[in-house]
Amino acid sequence: MTDSERTLDLRVHLLDRQIIDCDGVPVGVVDDVEFDMSPGGQTPRVVALLTGRALLDRLVAQTPDTTALESIPAEAIADVGVTVELTGSGEDLLSNWPERWFRDQIVSRIPGSGGRR
Prior knowledge:
- This protein has helices at residues 10-13, 54-59, 97-105, and strands spanning 18-20, 26-29, 32-36, 45-51, 70-73, 77-80, 84-86.
- By secondary structure, it is α+β, with helices and mostly antiparallel strands.
- The protein has a single domain (8-109), classed as PRC-barrel domain (SH3 type barrels, Roll), CATH 2.30.30.240.
- It has a 4-stranded mixed sheet, with no helix packed on it. The protein has a 3-stranded antiparallel sheet with strand order 3-4-5, with no helix packed on it.
- Strand 6 (77-80) and strand 7 (84-86) form a beta hairpin.
- It is globular, with a radius of gyration of 16 Å.
- 16% of the residues are buried.
- The mean pLDDT is 79.
- This is PRC-barrel domain-containing protein.
């Protein structure tokens, strides 16, 4: 069994784990997982991780809208450990724009944040 084929307990190893891009920048959390259910009783395989605003929906007691979640293909996952590490940059993820906006417009203006003035 290779590392890419290891068995994971989704509730322990994936759901609600922070997703980090190749630059070490947090880009979101794993909100859901998409599977490939092959016929013939084979073990289901993870096709993609879904991230987005599901946590916000849960906090306001709404059912998460799966169409609002962004799909990160399994091929883009470099490692699963304490965090889920991606092979590429997270700047291209649409679900990351609120965090980027907050970082650039609010946090960077706080003295001592190391941001631009």
